[in-house]
Amino acid sequence: MYKVLLVDDEAIARTGLRTTFDWEGYGYRLVGEASNGQKALKWIEAGEVDILITDIAMPVMDGLELTRRTRQLCPWVKVLLLSCHSDFEYVREGIRLGAADYILKPTLDSASLKDVLERMRQKLEEEKRLERIVTEHERQQREQRKRADEKTLYLALHGEAAAMENLAGFRSDGQFVVAVCRLDGGPRSDGFGAAPLDGEEEMERFKSCLYEQLPDALSVRTGPDLLAAWVPVDGMERSEDPRCDHLLLPLAAFATIGLSRRYAGPQRLAEAYVEASASLEASFFYREGRIFHAEDIGALGDRGGPEQAKPELQALRAALAVGNLPRCEVLLQSVMERWMPSRMGKQEVLVEAEELLGMLSTYSLSALPIVSPAFELTRLRSVEEVRSVILDAFQAVRDEPNRGPFPEATLHERIVLQAISYINAHYTEPISLQEVADEVAVSRNYFSELFKRVTGSNFIDYVIDLRVKRAKELLAATSLRVYEVAELSGFNDVKYFSKLFKKLVGMTPAEYQGLNRK
Question: Gene3D superfamilies this protein is in (predicted)?
């Protein structure tokens, strides 16, 4: 219902208007009445009026001044002037001031009032309709500008720093931080860690929350469950909150956040994005946190990387080959103790964990896989979850019913261990069964049978396993072409390599490389 205010200095006139017209029946509601313009202003100032019916001649503040003030405060209000015959010049002035219509008091009745109010209601409804159209158009324009800026931001984050200069509100000397937010998903039904969110609805909801909390920010989706945000912080005192936690704490209830240091200038945006992504990676090692800062991970020093674990991994493979499980457990724990941010990155841990799973699967007596596919490791959210998967796999190997106590190292086993050491050093070369047999000084046929008996694997399968694992490492960690990966892994025929890789891994080399780049 449209709200109507009656203003007239004659009480009997107000009473007549209030009682002789069916306001509710015609879709109007009287919100009040006043004896002069000054008293009527409290309703106008509160924005509680759609239609103002006012007499012109009144003490304290007349109808003309009330019309002028009303149009200033609430331009949408329709003003109906009540006039006597002698007030026509005043009526003309009222129309000039913005009154919508007038009625002569001597001719005022329910029918004429109804007609005038109906015209006013139509004008109000038309104005509201036009306002909705304009508002929606402006909203769409803002949304289009925002989407265009988000695309520009994506380019800038990935190295096109000049693109940042096209963003609305960007100042070349303004300070900013970059935040990389990973939405927290629920546990997977198979218990294998947290599933990344891949729904547009969840991402859009989080983005809306981010914009509500940080209206000057700009964000873009960079992965299935990742959102990167450029957050201007210019004008904030560093001493107030140098880490900007107060800006992001409400968002940390829904996501884990990696935060860069403060930067200025478009040429630093890509650098800040890399830094924020590295900060988020720290959550893999410190699960209890919600916001991770570049200041905390910037002084980690030189990481040893996976190369330092090669001797232990080779010793573990040899111990598995001869069934020395107590020695395997010691070596396994030693390898996993290196899984800390000061020594390895997340991707390095996952590559090493995949190699461990491959070893355990190779030397398992069971015909069925003892763990989920290795690429599922990428869905785990913490290093502790990865350790748990590895230990569960080792426990499955140790508890196999047909596995007896580990034997003493015999001459045959020492020969095989020597061969394994040689193979591990030369498998990327065109190595042959005869070459390895010559290395350990036994006949080709004898060595083939001996290797199978001790390791449970054929020589060629063992070499292929090593080469495929090396190929997966290169595909995950580099941008090499498939034929280059094949060559560096020991395959001299890229077509054979691609066919074999898909058979063993379940996807082509290019698909595997694309999966690890997401």
Answer: 3.40.50.2300, Homeodomain-like
Close Cβ partners of 446 (under 8 Å, ≥ 6 residues apart): 437
Residues 429, 191: Cα–Cα separation, whole Å = 40
Dist. CA 55–CA 35, nearest whole Å: 9
Going by their DSSP bridges, the two strands 51-55 and 78-83 should be labelled as parallel
Residues 6+ apart with CB under 8 A from 457: 362, 451, 465
Record the tokens describing residue 502, joined without a space.
């898909």
- The Cα–Cα gap between 89 and 85 comes to 10
φ, ψ of residue 61 in degrees (nearest 5): -140, 120
Judge contact between 149 and 236, C-beta under 8 A. Answer: no
Question: What gap in Å lies between CA 224 and CA 515, rounded to an integer?
Answer: 11
Q: What is the pLDDT of residues 389-407, one digit of tens each?
A: 889 888 888 887 665 554 4
3-state secondary structure of 79: strand
Phi/psi at 33 (5° precision): -150, 155
**Cβ–Cβ under 8 Å, residues 52 and 79:** yes
Contact 476, 338 (CB under 8 A): no
Cβ-contact 441, 414 below 8 angstroms: no
**Cα–Cα distance, 415 to 326 (Å, whole number):** 21
User: Does the pLDDT value for residue 366 go beyond 70?
Assistant: no
CB atoms within 10 A of CB 394: 21
Q: State the DSSP H helix or E strand holding residue 231, giving kind and residue range, or none if neither.
A: strand 226-232
Is residue 163 within 8 Å of residue 152, measured between CB atoms? Answer: yes
Q: pLDDT digit string (tens) for 56-96?
A: 889 999 989 999 999 989 999 999 988 876 677 788 888 88
Beta bridge partners of 140: none
Using CA atoms, how far apart are residues 79 and 102, in angstroms rounded to an integer? 8
As given in the structure block, the two tokens for residue 386 are 């990865």
The tokens 């080792």 sit on which residue?
A: 394
Q: Which residues of 71-184 form beta strands (DSSP E)? A: 78-83, 101-104, 175-183
- In the structure encoding, which two tokens stand for residue 258, read together? 């990696």
- Residue with token string 């017209």: 21
The tokens 């265009």 sit on which residue? 148
Give residue for tokens 């107000």: 14
Mean pLDDT on 90-116:
85
Element (H, E) at 348: helix 346-362
Q: What are phi and psi of 83, to 5 degrees?
A: -140, 155
Helix (H) / strand (E) containing 219? strand 218-223
Tell me if the pTM is above 0.90. no
- Specify whether the backbone of 191 is left (phi greater than 0), alpha (psi in -120 to 50) or beta: left
Beta strands 226-232 and 218-223 are antiparallel
Residues β-bridged to residue 5: 32, 52
The amino acid at 116: V
Q: Is 293 helix (H, G, I), strand (E, B) or coil?
A: strand
Residue type, 238: R
